[in-house]
Please model this.
Amino acid sequence: MIVTQLKWLPVVDEDLCTGCAACVEACGPKSLEIRNGVAELARPDTCGSEEHCIAPCPTAAIQMRWVPATGNPTRGKWQSAPNKERSLNSNPTSI
Ligand code: SF4
Model:
């Protein structure tokens, strides 16, 4: 079985984001940046999953979600999700 690591991360809806940077300023580890006029999670590794970016957003453009990720498991909230897809070699009927 393949196990995928999921991290609790902010996801920005670019259609709702105005680029005001309130979330950037609220983020202690500076994980977010404004790029091309919208907020982007530029450094997911540094995110502590603390959700400080959510409340300041005036347009509710950020939501926390479990996102496939790699990185330091001691920073932020993580969970494992079993991946039901099998590799070709895992089929017991193949030779
Ligand atoms: S606070 Fe909301 S609207 Fe402002 S930059 Fe961040 S995501 Fe965009």
